Amino acid sequence: MTRITRNLLLDCKAIVQEYIHRTPVLTSTLLNEHSKVDLYFKCENFQRSGSFKMRGAVHAISTLTDEQKAKGVVTHSSGNFAQALSLAARSIGVKAYIIMPNNAPQVKKNAVRSYGGEVIECEPNLPSREKAAQEIVLKYGATFLHPSNNFNVILGQGTATMELLEDHPDLDYIMTPVGGGGLIAGTALAAHFFGRHCNTIGGEPFNVDDAYQSLKTGKIVRNESTDTIADGLRTELGDINFPIIMDYVEMIIRVEEKEIIEAMHLIWERMKIIIEPSCAVPFAALLREKDFFKGKKVGIILSGGNVDLGKLPF
């Protein structure tokens, strides 16, 4: 893997900023009083395509050679990366093939197509997704881009924290949800190189606590269940992002399903913004451990706002 440096992250930010929104950082006096913490919410729910994943997608495509760009990119995803890669590819002028399970909601397939991605459906299991992606690679010469276990994707995701620390350089902690590990790995790198003694903490559901178990044991642990409302966190860590997490993430706090719903409801009620369940997990983790964070300045990456309004849990 390429040696990670401060300049590498700065180069990444220079590439990415042409294609993304610099999302706002919101605060809430009521939530500060409720938690006894100074909170700074980095609102990636306002990002293009509705999530932070636009950052990593743009950077990963931008770092390809002209020959690779001419042959397109492919990924397998039924969530935010599917939409992000489609929009990023269209913005840069590259063809995007998106492998999606045939039981993915039609609204998600329509969103990918609206961003210019070509949807290829497969059976709803990982082997089928990987096989379909490999067939596109062989047929068209497209470059496969993993949603979270890709070095250039990880660097791109870190740019959200770089922006946050430019606005608020004295944060004690930055918190993110943990799913595939791309966001927390990028966040941890940015906090390490650009923060002032700023540590990274992850939030994860008890029902899919593979990252917590992996950090505890020092090796990647797989989930035995995917039973969580935080559907974006059902994925698992990879061999590229896990070493970064081991080196730069302080800890991961697990939360119950009811705590996720309560945190999501509190943000909707007090801040009047739309977030998806996965996005509420780090705030739920902070509320669970309020005594630990009391009196600190904490940034929280609100990872996305692509939620089905017809299926709200409250």
TrEMBL record:
Residues 17-304 form the Tryptophan synthase beta chain-like PALP domain. Coiled coil: none annotated. The keyword Transcription does not apply. Keywords: Pyridoxal phosphate. It holds the Pfam family PALP. Gene3D superfamilies: 3.40.50.1100. The keyword Magnesium does not apply. SUPFAM superfamilies: Tryptophan synthase beta subunit-like PLP-dependent enzymes. PANTHER family: SERINE / THREONINE RACEMASE FAMILY MEMBER, SERINE RACEMASE. This is Pyridoxal-phosphate dependent enzyme. The lineage of its organism: Bacteria, Pseudomonadati, Bacteroidota, Flavobacteriia, Flavobacteriales.
